Amino acid sequence: MKNEKAMYALTYGLFILTARQGEKDNGCIVNTVGQVTIAPNRITVAVDKTNLTHDMIAETGKFTVSVLSEKANFDLFRRFGFQSGRDVDKFAGFGGAGRGENGILYITEGTNAWMSGKVVSSIDLGTHTLFLADVLDADMLSEVPSVTYAYYQAHIKPRPQAPSEPSGKKRWVCKVCGYIYEGDVLPEDFICPICKHPASDFEEME
User: Fold this and answer.
1) Average of pLDDT values for 63-72?
2) CB atoms closer than 10 angstroms to residue 164
């Protein structure tokens, strides 16, 4: 690819995708929700297969999408994006949610709308599954503009904090959460301890 940064010119929203299986509620951050038809009203969402939410949707065929707004704070991204539902209850101690008629929680904190979907088909994309779903219910929560990935990068994600004393070592910053790694070489198999993204999502700091 001549210049992969061209991909950054694509516009993305940010969403919390939720599901429920049995008595378990879970959710994760995604940026791949889009309306594809109006009649019938259908949306698609691509979900990483490593996410528990993916497995829950694959089993139940149901999900809810909450649209993050510019009022969303970084704590929402930490809760739903930087930890696994296989290890923690992401909704423990969290009061910013309501339960829809489909039994799935939608997020009321830092969002402007939600919609519930019923899967009608899916496509295996290798690392992800693309779910096509009928929109069964939806509602607006506020008039605050939807957050874009660019807005998240510029206004929500914390700025990298350089060490107070120069160490003389090279530094790499995670493009997702701002974590800084110091060392002569960034290992190819390094995983960010904050957001769990791989070394490919780091860039060397000047």
Assistant:
1) 98
2) 5
Beta pairing class for 128-140 and 111-124: antiparallel
pLDDT per residue over 102-135, tens digit each? 999 999 999 999 999 999 999 999 999 999 999 9
pTM: 0.85
87-122 exposure pattern, b = at least 16 Cβ within 10 A, e = fewer: eeebbeebeebeebebebbbbebbbbbbbbbbbeeb
Among 2, 1, 16, 198, residue whose Cα is nearest residue 94: 16
Find out whether 202 and 173 touch, Cβ atoms under 8 Å: yes
Res. 157 pLDDT band, cuts 50 70 90: confident
Q: 10 Å Cβ neighbour count for 63?
A: 27
